[in-house]
């Protein structure tokens, strides 16, 4: 290494020539680094031995440097570790090919030093800072004697001045570009704000947004999808260059779970590329209608306001790399303003609806709990009669069988019996006979010993033992396996049980409460339920009326569910539309209280103001809802007609009789005026025959 400061610069000036001056002038006129490296590599005019010049730019106090060189197709740059380069701040580095070692793999792969026989590097330093170093590559041996080195040292001083000038110019251009982009961004945001500030309907927004964003970014299409929390779907407004005058409206719910799954899981923009696929079938409406055929990249912007998802904004562009170069923060600000506009429109709509319905609402009142039945909401005479029975039977230890349709509150009645009994200080153990696998229900009820069967790794206390001195509630008792019923009967009669794998009896004191929605008597006739167990359970039956038979309780239940659900969801709902309440009272409610609660919960989710968002139009489909017939155990099928030999007179006679009877009864199957009563059979039996014979109650027909 040679100390540059040791060269007397007073002896160098005579070696300046026209080529040297021309090179210096060109370097000082360079504007960009690419232009600078191009001009610097025209050095052969004054240094015939030098064929290539490279720049090493110091990136500060870090361990990396920027390496600029001329590639085959023009200027290139690589980020390299300083440790892999010959890098000096003060000394000239002159090396023959024998001592030169290319330690940087990136530079070796680029062929930067191909044909090198002599290497020279000089530091480039100005009065302000150390900029890096300049490399001179020569294919000649011993190409850098003292005279040439002295001339290159002066050139390095000029390179330092010119390079500092270029870097200052680039910083100035960068600042100017930044200011220009900031100005353009402000203009875009102002345009978007002006477009949304007077927004009245969401359908007006997509066209305005597309006009602005298409002008600034040349997007090919825009889709604004409004989210509906109730249906978990999107109402999409699609605008492209062909539909710029009038946006197309697409109602669909096929892509929010699949194509938008990744986008909706984050608050930041989500990008999809055609070449990478978008996670859904190529024939779905998201690919065929939302994403244009000429779009190679799309950006999905979730529209959220105060944490609530209002929709998504989908922008598409024909360039696959477009969104990699764009300012994403600007798109996020566009999305934020769009979300605010959508929220304002929805709020205005709700205010309008509230003002229009102010005089047509019923205030949600607080309920006064009953001292004995705090968890049961009622005022009907039917429920009053039921609860009187509950009070009576609660003081005894006899078995209780609770009957009623699904969703009528059988478990609440069981809890009330336990709470009013002398066993209330002990545990009430609940068993759902329909939810336990058949092979495990015996072990679950009676317990088992360690090693009683495969997998019995430890002793288990059954639910009967857990309920000792307390109450055992057997829900869905009609689903108990037939082979287990004798064991249950013995426990109830003898008040003792045997664990699986142990023959020693264990005394128990349990009060049994059972519940079912099945017709147990019919099951007994059909030999699907043991008669002795039925009579043992049916000591004190309590039949719960369906909700349609206690309609005066519906307003109380509605108030209760609104208060309960609104509190859980942190909503303040004070009233309900009177028309909606009237409709709720008139509905058949085949799902009973459970169905009513689900309807109210959906309405609370949709409500943004103080009035429950539930319109009679939304309830109308439930008005014409027909009860879904569930599988019940019925008596064995019998033919309507039998001949003298006991054989059926034929399917056609049976079919014709059913059809004639249905016509006489105007298609009514059940009830006193129904066809089943007239034919002397159960409703379920008649329905089974009708299904088998292909007869419709609404339009009974004879075969052609």
Brief descriptors of the model:
704 residues; alpha+beta; Beta-Lactamase; Rossmann fold; 5 domains; seven-stranded antiparallel beta sheet; 38% helix; disordered N terminus
How far is the N terminus from the C terminus? Answer: 112 Å
Instruction: Round the Cα radius of gyration to an integer and report it.
Output: 43 Å
The assigned CATH architecture of the largest domain is 2-Layer Sandwich
Global outline: elongated
Q: Mean pLDDT across all residues, rounded?
A: 80
User: Within the CATH hierarchy, at the fold level, what is the topology of the largest domain?
Assistant: Beta-Lactamase
Number of strands: 22
The order of strands across the largest sheet is: 1-5-6-7-2-3-4
Poorly predicted sequence stretches spanning 5 or more consecutive residues: 1-15, 251-257, 626-649
> Major sheet: size, sense and barrel closure?
7 strands, antiparallel
Percent strand? 15-25%
Decide which structural class fits the backbone. Answer: alpha+beta
Q: What's the CATH superfamily of the largest domain, by name? A: GAF domain
CATH hierarchy class name of the largest domain:
Alpha Beta
Number of domains: 5
Helical proportion, percent range:
25-40%
What's the tally of helices? 23
Protein architecture, described:
- With 704 residues, the protein is of the alpha+beta class.
- The protein folds into 5 domains: 2-172, 2-Layer Sandwich (Beta-Lactamase); 198-353, Beta-Lactamase (2-Layer Sandwich), CATH 3.30.450.40; 381-543, P-loop containing nucleotide triphosphate hydrolases (Rossmann fold, 3-Layer(aba) Sandwich); 547-623, Helicase, Ruva Protein, domain 3, CATH 1.10.8.60; 637-704, no CATH class.
- It is 38% helix and 18% strand.
- It contains 23 helices and 22 strands.
- Strands 1-5-6-7-2-3-4 form a 7-stranded antiparallel beta sheet.
- β9 and β10 form a beta hairpin.
- The termini are far apart.
- Mean pLDDT is 80; it is low at 1-15, 251-257 and 626-649.
């Amino acid at each position: 290494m040679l100390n540059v400061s040791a060269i007397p610069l007073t002896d160098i000036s005579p070696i300046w020539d026209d080529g040297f001056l021309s090179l210096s002038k060109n370097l000082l006129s360079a504007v960009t680094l690419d232009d600078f490296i191009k001009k610097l590599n025209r050095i052969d005019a004054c240094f015939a031995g030098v064929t290539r010049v490279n720049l090493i730019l110091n990136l500060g106090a870090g361990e990396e440097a920027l390496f600029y060189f001329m590639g085959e197709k023009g200027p290139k740059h690589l980020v390299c570790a300083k440790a892999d380069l010959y890098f000096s701040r003060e000394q000239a580095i002159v090396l023959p090919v024998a001592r030169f070692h290319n330690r940087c793999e990136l530079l070796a792969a680029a062929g930067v030093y191909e044909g090198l026989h002599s290497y020279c590097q000089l530091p480039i330093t100005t009065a302000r800072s150390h900029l890096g170093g300049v490399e001179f590559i020569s294919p000649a041996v011993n190409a850098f004697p003292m005279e040439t080195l002295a001339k290159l040292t002066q050139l390095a001083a000029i390179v330092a001045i010119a390079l500092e000038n270029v870097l200052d110019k680039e910083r100035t251009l960068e600042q100017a570009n930044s200011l220009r982009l900031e100005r353009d961004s402000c203009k875009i945001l102002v345009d978007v704000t002006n477009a949304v500030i007077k927004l009245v309907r969401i359908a007006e927004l997509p066209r305005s947004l597309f006009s602005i964003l298409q002008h600034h970014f040349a997007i090919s299409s825009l889709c604004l999808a409004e989210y509906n929390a109730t249906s978990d779907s999107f109402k999409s407004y699609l605008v492209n260059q062909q539909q710029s005058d009038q946006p197309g409206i697409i109602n669909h719910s096929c892509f929010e779970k699949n194509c938008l799954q990744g986008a909706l899981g984050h608050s930041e923009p989500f990008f999809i590329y055609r070449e990478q696929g978008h996670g859904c079938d190529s024939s779905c409406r998201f690919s065929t209608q939302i994403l244009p055929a000429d779009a190679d990249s799309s950006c999905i912007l979730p529209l959220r306001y105060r944490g609530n998802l209002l929709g998504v904004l989908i922008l598409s562009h024909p360039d696959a790399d477009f969104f990699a170069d764009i300012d994403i923060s600007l798109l996020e600000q566009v999305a934020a303003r769009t979300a605010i506009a959508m929220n304002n429109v929805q709020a205005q709509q709700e205010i309008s609806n509230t003002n229009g319905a102010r005089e047509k609402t019923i205030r949600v009142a607080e309920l006064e709990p009953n001292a004995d039945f705090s968890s049961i909401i009622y005022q009907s005479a039917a429920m009053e009669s039921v609860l009187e029975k509950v009070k009576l039977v609660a003081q005894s230890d006899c078995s209780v069988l609770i009957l009623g349709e699904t969703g009528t509150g059988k478990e609440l009645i069981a809890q009330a019996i336990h709470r009013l009994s002398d066993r209330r200080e002990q545990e009430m153990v609940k068993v759902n006979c329909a939810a336990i696998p058949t092979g495990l229900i015996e072990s679950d009820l009676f317990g088992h010993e360690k090693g009683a069967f495969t997998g019995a790794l430890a002793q288990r206390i059954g639910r009967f033992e857990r309920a000792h001195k307390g109450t055992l509630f057997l829900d869905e008792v009609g689903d108990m396996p037939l082979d287990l019923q004798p064991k249950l009967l013995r426990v109830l009669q003898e008040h003792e049980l045997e664990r699986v794998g142990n023959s020693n009896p264990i005394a128990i004191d349990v009060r049994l409460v059972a519940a079912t929605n099945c017709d147990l008597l019919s099951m007994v006739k059909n030999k699907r339920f043991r008669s002795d167990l039925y009579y043992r359970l049916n000591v004190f039956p309590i039949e719960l009326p369906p909700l349609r038979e206690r309609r005066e309780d519906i307003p109380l239940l509605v108030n209760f569910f609104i208060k309960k659900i609104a509190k859980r969801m942190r909503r303040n709902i004070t009233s309900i539309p009177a028309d909606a309440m009237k409709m709720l009272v008139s509905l058949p409610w085949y799902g009973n209280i459970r169905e009513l609660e689900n309807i109210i919960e959906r309405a609370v989710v949709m409500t943004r103001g103080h009035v429950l968002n539930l319109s009679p139009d939304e309830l109308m489909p439930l008005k014409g809802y027909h009860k879904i017939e569930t599988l019940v155990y019925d008596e064995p099928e019998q033919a309507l007609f039998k001949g003298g030999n006991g054989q059926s007179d034929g399917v056609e006679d049976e079919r014709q009789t059913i059809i004639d009877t249905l016509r006489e009864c105007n298609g009514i199957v059940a009830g006193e005026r129904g066809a089943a009563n007239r034919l002397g059979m159960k409703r379920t039996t008649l329905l089974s025959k009708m299904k088998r014979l292909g007869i419709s109650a609404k339009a009974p027909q004879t075969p052609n």
